[in-house]
Design a protein that fits this description.
This protein is of the alpha/beta class. It is built from eleven helices and five strands; from the N terminus they run ααααααβββαβααβαα. The protein is 43% helix and 13% strand.
Length: 280
């Protein structure tokens, strides 16, 4: 497992294992964990935007084919650089994969509960996921909680890191506003397998369901949400900063809520770093 993948397994909010202990178990240097990551350069940001557009259109593309397509389009790039940028963006090719790694210490993988299930009423099943959103001179991560039956976006948050805290914020807002579902479905990302996130669900008496590794069809409705959002809004408007992105997402999500005849999504709070805000 690569260093970025092992670093993503860290759970800073873990109630039992300290950061020191987790670093020892994962074979990580603590200095690398605490060091502030360097901002992406302009070349990386341009490539990440191109990779995001290709991946949104063809989510089955891996780093090898992604590098080949970019080279065919006149962007010479090697596979290792594509792999590094895809890890930074939090994306990987969708498709069945062998079980080559285990969850981080304290992270449990729950079975997928939705196979063959009829989902026909609100608050029966909710789902969540994280996606990468490019902005002028950087990028942010978006997490959303949706209802499977109505397709309504119940809550969302923006963040400049993939830390579990912004996922918990979105989850807690959805629970406070709309009650609780019978089942909550996620992928096997380290944010959603963390004790901090699953603990909120278990405390509320909600059954936890998780997709199989690389099985995008297990969470198909939120994958469709990301595709619609990017093609109908993000790629057309090229938001300059986090403030513009937040306002644009609020408008788009409210409109989508009306289109589905459901309660409109709230204007979520986000943790937008100052470096992503455009100066007046």
């Amino acid at each position: 497992m690569s260093v970025p993948d092992r670093r993503a397994k860290l759970d800073r909010a873990h109630g039992v294992l300290s950061i020191r202990h987790q670093c020892r178990l994962l074979g990580l240097s603590r200095s690398g964990v605490y060091r502030t990551p360097q901002p992406a350069n302009d070349d990386d940001l341009t490539l990440m935007r191109q990779i995001d557009e290709l991946f949104t259109a063809r989510p089955f593309l891996g780093s090898r084919r992604m590098a080949w397509l970019l080279s065919e389009d006149g962007v010479p790039i090697n596979r290792k650089r594509v792999q590094r940028l895809m890890r930074k963006m939090g994306i990987e090719a969708l498709g069945p994969k062998p079980r080559t790694s285990k969850p981080a210490p304290g992270h449990l993988i729950y079975p997928y509960l939705l196979r063959g299930m009829t989902i026909d009423r609100p608050n029966q099943v909710w789902a969540t996921d994280i996606t990468y959103i490019p902005i002028g001179r950087g990028f942010l991560y978006l997490v959303a909680v949706i209802d499977w039956a109505s397709r309504a976006v119940l809550s969302w948050r923006l963040s400049n890191t993939m830390d579990v805290s912004f996922c918990i914020d979105a989850l807690e807002e959805a629970l406070a506003r709309f009650g609780k579902p019978q089942i909550f479905n996620t992928d096997q990302g380290s944010q959603f397998t963390s004790a901090a996130f699953t603990g909120v669900l278990e405390a509320a008496g909600i059954r936890i369901s998780m997709d199989g590794r690389g099985r995008w069809m297990d969470n198909v409705f939120i994958e469709r949400l990301w595709r619609s959002l990017k093609h109908e809004d993000v790629y057309l408007k090229f938001y300059a900063d986090g403030k513009e992105l937040h306002a644009g997402l609020a408008d788009w999500l409210v409109g989508r809520g009306r289109a589905h005849g459901t309660t409109a999504a709230p204007a979520a709070r986000s943790r937008v770093p100052r470096s992503c805000r455009r100066r007046a």
